[in-house]
Structures are given as C-alpha cells and as structure tokens.
Amino acid sequence: MKTQIAPVRTSTQRADAIEAAVYLLTGGYPVALPTETVYGLAAWALNPEAVFRIFNAKERPRFDPLIVHLPSLDWLTNLCVIPNEDLNLVQELTKQFWPGPLTLVLPRKPIVPDVVTAGLDTVAVRISAQPLFKEIIEGFGQPLAAPSANRFGRISPTTAAHVFDELSGRIHLIVDDGPCEIGVESTIVMPSKGVLWVMRDGPVTRRQLWDFAEVKTSPRKKLPQGPGQLKSHYAPRTPLTLLPRDAVPLPAGKGPVGLLAWCSPPQEKGFAHVEILSRTGNYQEAASTLFAKLRILDSMGMNRIIAESVSEEGLGIAIMDRLRKASGNG
Ligand code: AMP
Ligand code: MG
Q: Most CB contacts within 10 A, which of 20, 55, 181, 223?
C-alpha cells in the first residue's frame, strides 16, 4: 500500500484532503489526522473492522484501549452513561475544557464495540479543538477512535513526516496540517463519586482540575500492565538517562552522547549533539517540541541520550512523565 501525504496549504487542497479522509473513514479505513495534541490514527469507532485496522497498523496489543473522539457534545450520552452523582462535574468539565485536550473516562453504553475499550466497562472520550480535525469529524458525522499515529511503544508523532516514518506502507492517507500545537497527549481523568482520578498527566494540569474537584492519582496509572502505562511507552530506540533535578550533565561513557537540555547549553563541551527544549524556560514551547527533539536525538546514532529534568509544576508534570517513560521508568 502506498501512503499519500495530503497537504492543506490552499483551499482546494484542504477540500480535497477532507473529502479523501471522509471517503476512507466511511469505507472503514484508518487515516492519520492532526489533533492539537499529537497526530492520531483515526478510524470509525463504531465499526469493529475499522478499529481492528488501527491495531494492526500500529501493532498495538488488543488490551490497550483507544480514546474516542466525538463529533459534538450530543454524542457524549450516546456512548456513555453518566452517573447522576457525577453529572454536574462532567458538565462543568466539558463546558470548561471541550473542545480541548481533556479525555474523560466514563461508563460505556453497549453501542461502543469491545475492541475499542479492550473489554473494559468504561470508554475514554474527548472532543478535539484542531480546526481541520473538527471539520473532518463533523463531515464524517460519527465518533472516531484515534490513538497516536505511531507504532506501539514508540514516540508519539507531532508532524506528518513523523507519521510517515512510523506508518508508511501501512495506511492510505496522512493529512498534513503542520506541527501539532500542544505536542503532548491529552490529560486523561476518570470522574467518580466527585473525585477526579488522573490516569495520564497532560496539557490540562492538575492545578486546573482542582478548581472542579478533588484530584487523585488513579491506582490504574501505577499498574505496569495498566492500559497505556507500559514501561516501553514513548521510548526512543537509543537508551535515555533522565538526570536528577539540578545534576550537571556530563557526556560520560563510551561513544557519542546526546543531550536534551532544558533551557541553556551545557557547560561541558563533550556532547555530540545538543537539543534545548526552551531557551526562555517556557513549558508550552518545551512540550510542543519535546517529541520532535527526542526523535532528532534518536536518529543520530548516539550511544546514549541524557535528558535534564524539568521542574514538576503545571505542564512540567506531563513533560517529566513522558521523559520518565522515554527512560524506561514510566
Ligand atoms: P492514546 O494512545 O493516546 O490513544 O491513549 C490511549 C490511552 O487512553 C490508553 O493507553 C489508556 O491509558 C487510556 N484509556 C483509553 N480508554 C480507557 C479506559 N476505558 N479506561 C482507562 N483508560 C483508558
Ligand atoms: Mg499512544
């Protein structure tokens, strides 16, 4: 199969890309689409054949459930049962954060195929704010299952070129709308009896969530076999060492060593290559380029990548979570 990359620079290209994407989705084929977080591999969530094709293209194990994107808020109650006690909380969260990078895990209705949820009695849902994604899902008019468009266990893609590197020959179409704005995957929370259980840290921060309810870390997050929580997740092929906070990075060991620095170049000159997350110490900038910089370092034939720690506040929590996973200690 030949993988086409559809650009959307002109209005004609944009219209053509939307038409081609909707055509493939309707036929039950997955299409790589940009979201505001990372590129997703989207397919018709209510069609099990289509969802199987996502798992096959990604080589993703069937026990890892997918996030379902909704075309509109009306769809929420088509797919989920919201317990009365959590109704207000869910309404407040969707009002504040949707469309946007917050995924809610809620009890599911039977209409959601087992393959989407890996047999769980809950389903993870969100509405994307990416304008092109919105146009495509609204044009399609059905929910889309859309995990990140990478092979299982690899770094999430934030450009169409990253998706091509991961899935070329395995899917028909990648819609290219440039680099993703946010760059790290959505925050996942499960509202339950008035508590927000965080299953994955992300762009919507714990501090923001505290305005709505008590926030706790989901015990599922800590299980090594828990969905999406495998240690190899987000891993570069090159071994990565995450330095403790304020440790001085040294290019120790044999062979070339690369450095993923936080905001300033290292004192030590011995690194074969250095990428800096944000020269101004800006978390948004750091998050949006984190995966692209990891990919650059991973492609350079280094013996090791050393990554500096980031302060764990706000978006820094999500960045550190991804760096720990990249180091094999997620
Ligand atoms: P992604 O690969 O970004 O699509 O993320 C999918 C992740 O969402 C999974 O690996 C899980 O961690 C989480 N997830 C999806 N569905 C559920 C669910 N029903 N219950 C708990 N976590 C879920
Ligand atoms: Mg993923």
A: 55
All CATH 3.90.870.10 domain ranges in the chain, comma separated: 4-217
CATH code for 4-217? Answer: 3.90.870.10
Site to probe by mutation for ligand 1, drawn from 163, 189, 199 as the one with most ligand atoms within 8 Å of Cβ, is 199
pLDDT of 329: 79
Model's pTM, two decimal places? 0.95
Distance 65 CA to ligand 1 centre (A): 5
Question: Which residue stretches of the chain have pLDDT < 50?
Answer: 223-228
List pocket residues of ligand 1, CB cut-off 6 Å.
64-67, 105, 117, 120, 122-124, 147-148, 185, 188, 199-200, 227-228
The CATH architecture that domain 240-326 belongs to is 3-Layer(aba) Sandwich (3.40)
Instruction: Kindly report the protein residue whose alpha carbon is nearest to atom 7 of ligand 1.
Output: 228
Q: How far is the CA of 109 from the centre of ligand 1 (A)?
A: 17
Cα of 213 from ligand 1 centre, angstroms: 21
Distance from the CA of 250 to the center of ligand 2, in angstroms?
A: 31
pLDDT tens-place string over residues 105-140: 999 999 999 999 999 999 999 999 999 999 999 999
Q: Which ligand is nearest to the CA of 64?
A: 1
Is the backbone peptide bond immediately before 99 cis, with ω within 30 degrees of 0?
A: yes
